[in-house]
Amino acid sequence: MATQDSDHHAVANADGDETAAAGQAYFDKIIAADSRIEPPDWMPDGYRKTLIRQISQHAHSEVIGMQPEGNWIGRAPSLKRKAILMAKVQDEAGHGLYLYSAAETLGIPRDVLNDQLIAGKARYSSIFNYPARSWADMGAIGWLVDGAAICNQVPLCRASFGPYGRAMVRVCKEESFHQRQGFEILLELANGTPAQKQMAQDAVDGLYAPALMMFGPPDSDSAHSSQSMAWNIKRFSNDELRQRFVGMIVEQVKVLGLTLPDDDIRFNEETGKWEYGELDWDEFNEVLAGRGPCNAQRLTRRREAHENGAWVREAATAYAAEKAKREQVA
Amino acid sequence: MSSVGTTPVVATAMGAATGDAMASATRITPGNALRPEDIAGKVAAGSVVVPQDVASYALRLGDDALILAQRLGWWVSRAPELEEDIALSNIALDLLGHARSFLSYAGGAWGKTEDDLAYFRGEDEFCSAHLVEQPNGDFARTIARQLVVSTFQHLLYNRLVDSQDATLAAISAKALKEVDYHQDHAYQWVLRLALGTQESRRRMVNGLDLTWPYIAELFDDDELIDRLEGIAVRPSSLRVAYDCRITQILAEAELDVQEVPRAAGGGRSGRHSEYLGHILAEMQVLAREHPGATW
Asked: Across residues B73-92, what is the average pLDDT?
């Protein structure tokens, strides 16, 4: 995502110093009261930029996330599973739409965000740069990836920016449904034939570490965390959320009769926290830098869909303009 | 939409949830819409008996819906706008729901489930029309196919709600409401593409040209239809209304109906386009790798 120097903007607005001071006072009061900032309210540039970055990354993740699951719509092994998967991918497109809309309330059009995405300038969740090779990945994506997303997103329902918090309420409801569907896919496979059970275990093995990395870098290396917490956007640190997630899945995996590929998971009685084995952050950074297994494929698909659809969007715009003109004449 | 006469029959056949059978839990009450699982349950329990001919007819309806759903599912993550990803996948999802209901019902005649029929029949046992097997092409070609199929299905289900077969009538009543939206979606896009830009018009005309040869097959009658008087809808009886509706839409879009030779067809008796084998190869591959497995 393109970042701009927030100081330039502040200098350009020097004339509005008084307004800004009043705005800042109001903003600080709202944040201190843990209440909500709405789109017309004054907000610091950094707050606006942080939200645009975070909300658009989230929207892009939903949109790119349609691809690994879309990859299995055609091959879903039962019609019921096909229907559930189709509905799920459709929900993701819907989440993308709410989130782009929330970002638009901050003054950035969806077109611009989309252009940033297809130009490779925006980020989205690294997890979607891993391939969905087997049907069991549909289960593991639901259980682990959507599960991690829920851990991240439930606290965001209380985010200080109103449109984001409200969008997250609906997103979280649907995500929790997706997580249960994913868990059910794995449960069915784990209780199925030996080949099915192996498929399920392989998928969990493959997605465990990438899912843990979805919470972002360790707190010691997280660039944005502390300011976001001060602004009541983030409520818990990356590591806090990651520990909480490990505590959840370590119990759930027992119900599945599968294992997590991490021998170092243990509950630390002293700290009251779950501990887990070291994650390969070099791999994370490689994928983040665009060198993951599917980065190029995902962006190419998005770019092609956008470019192939240009004539359709132009037609719709031309039709609407012509219709408006005719109505004016009439 | 649903005639008063058929409603109690349906409620009796498929089971009303509570109270007044005229309220028709299966067809109207929100939250109690007819689900494929309900049909499969009734059929498995033997409370609904499915005659062979009715099953063969249901199979045709189900296969059309299934193959088209399979085709449309491709668009997810590839549509011109996020709104269209949603619209096309929603239409695919509706069609898949219709397919599941029709196949669950048809399977009752042969002791088969919807999945037995979808995943373990060979190409020549499918009875979809060639039109739904045609490639998606560009967005205009998909919309042209949608225009024809949704118009046809709307007319069909609008009549089938009066079928003497209560289950076909019930499935149709639910499908009709959904196909109504499909038809509007296709109509709205035909106008936009035909009257939008030169490029979109060229593509819309091309999409329709590629679609015309496959329309006639939809209206073919055969012996099965003859044997199902009062139960099935005679396809040829829908042609006049279909032509009337399509002509109206095309006139509004300032397009002409082309007179082109019809393709041979044969889908109803298992003679398919070359495309179907590929569609089934994708759809069936995983299920066939694990015969007997449940998912």
From this structure: 97
- Write out pLDDT tens, residues A138-172: 999 999 999 999 999 999 999 999 999 999 999 99
- Give the gyration radius of chain A's Cα atoms: 22
Beta-carbon contacts of residue A39 (< 8 Å; ≥ 6 apart): A105, A106, A162, A163
Q: Give the one of B78, B86, B197 whose C-beta lies nearest to A318's C-beta.
A: B197
User: Smallest CA–CA separation between A188 and chain B, in Å?
Assistant: 6
Q: A150-159, long-range: CB within 8 Å, 24+ apart, which pairs?
A: A150/A175, A150/A176, A150/A179, A151/A215, A151/A241, A151/A244, A151/A245, A151/A248, A152/A214, A152/A215, A152/A241, A155/A234, A155/A235, A155/A236, A155/A241, A156/A233, A156/A234, A156/A235, A158/A34, A158/A232, A158/A235, A159/A232, A159/A233
pLDDT at A269: 93
Q: Say what percent of chain B tops pLDDT 90.
A: 83
Q: Which of A121-125, A178-182, A243-247, B45-49 has the lowest mean pLDDT?
A: B45-49
For B290, which of A87, A195, A305 is closest by C-beta distance?
A195
Q: What is the ipTM of this complex?
A: 0.91
Q: Which of residues 274-313 of A touch B (CB under 8 A)?
A: 301-302, 304-305, 308-313
Q: Tell me the C-alpha distance between B44 and B112, whole Å.
A: 9
DSSP class of B81: S
> Would you state the structure tokens that stand for residue B240, as one six-digit string?
């006049």
Q: What is the pLDDT of residue B30?
A: 52
| B29 has pLDDT over 70 | no
* Closest to A83 (Cα-Cα) out of B114, B161, B25, B148: B114
CATH class of B2-16+27-289: mainly alpha
Residue that the structure tokens 């610091």 belong to? A44
Q: Which residue of A has its CA nearest to B103?
A: A79
B15: left (phi over 0), alpha (psi -120 to 50) or beta: left
Domain ranges of chain B: 2-16+27-289
Question: pTM of the predicted model, to two decimals?
Answer: 0.91
